[in-house]
Structure formats: structure tokens, C-alpha cells
Q: What sequence folds into this?
């Protein structure tokens, strides 16, 4: 009896693994209240080296090593900051923009909540998502703290696009 149960459990495990890897298997029988406007066909995690690259960029920005970031950007980059304007141009111009942004600071610090590298299957795109708290210590003695979320698109192993969403943290009374 033990042999039969053992054999049956191995057969179930093998068939379960092969079903998970079968591209013809119907995935998801759930019905959702919304349809994604961009995609819901996502593989997570995907390309951890892309998350590693983006986190290096964050550390370089935090440490005011703007020129060191150059190697990670595509020749042309698009950046959507939280003020609603769009930057689209050469990476050197983007890095000048970054240097100007950080020039008024004594220091800054990121506390990373989480990151995620994803592959959008139906669009064949790679993205890195980051959630964090940003603390800016201005030269005039004031401080700013923001909750933030960024999305970074990686094309040909380079950052081609990123955006920033920012919010003020809840104030404790």
C-alpha cells in the first residue's frame, strides 16, 4: 500500500509540474472586475539583474555620483517626473537635469520598501518597479520626505524610460 501511495504521489507531482509548464494549459479561470489597459500577462520575477542595475542608479543618485550613472542609460531617455512635465532627450541632458536636482541638497537617503523586476509577456517588455521613502536634506536646513514609486523600462540592457509618482506621507497627530 505504501508503494502505491508513493508511486501515485510521484505521478501527481510530475503531472502537476508538467501542467504548470505547458504553454497550452488554460491559465486562470478567474474573472476580474477590470481589464488591464496595458497588460495583465506578466512574469514575476524576471531579470533580477535589471533590478540590480536600477538600484545601483538609485545609490549613485543618492551619493551624488551622477556621471557614474551614464553607462546605464540608453542614448535617448524619457522621464516623467511627478510635476506632470516630460523629459525626452539625450542621456547627458538627463544627467544634467539630475545634477541640478540634487545640487540644492546637503544629502539624501532612500529607504527602499520593495522592488520587483517583471517581464510583460504580450509586449515583450522588461520593467523594474520600486517603492520607497525619499528623505531630502536641503542646504537651507529644511527637510522633505516623500513616499515614491517608480517604473523603469529596460531595453537592450539600458534604461530607456522611467517615471516617478510621489506623495506626502501621512502626518501623525
A:
Amino acid at each position: 500500500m505504501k508503494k502505491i501511495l508513493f508511486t501515485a504521489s510521484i505521478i501527481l507531482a510530475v503531472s502537476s509540474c508538467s501542467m504548470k509548464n505547458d504553454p497550452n494549459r488554460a491559465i486562470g479561470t478567474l474573472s476580474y472586475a477590470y481589464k488591464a489597459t496595458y497588460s495583465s500577462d506578466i512574469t514575476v520575477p524576471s531579470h533580477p539583474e535589471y533590478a540590480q542595475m536600477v538600484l545601483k542608479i538609485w545609490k549613485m543618485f543618492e551619493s551624488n555620483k551622477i556621471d557614474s550613472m551614464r553607462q546605464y542609460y540608453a542614448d535617448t531617455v524619457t522621464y516623467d517626473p511627478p510635476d506632470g512635465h516630460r523629459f525626452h532627450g539625450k542621456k547627458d541632458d538627463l544627467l544634467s537635469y539630475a545634477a541640478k536636482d540634487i545640487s540644492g541638497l546637503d544629502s539624501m537617503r532612500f529607504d527602499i520598501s520593495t522592488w520587483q523586476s517583471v517581464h510583460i509577456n504580450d509586449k515583450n517588455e522588461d520593467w523594474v518597479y520600486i517603492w520607497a521613502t525619499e528623505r531630502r536634506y536641503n542646504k537651507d536646513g529644511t527637510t522633505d520626505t516623500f513616499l515614491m514609486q517608480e517604473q523603469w523600462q529596460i531595453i537592450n540592457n539600458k534604461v530607456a524610460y522611467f517615471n516617478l509618482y510621489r506623495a506626502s506621507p501621512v502626518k501623525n497627530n
The helical segments are 2-20, 48-62, 91-103.
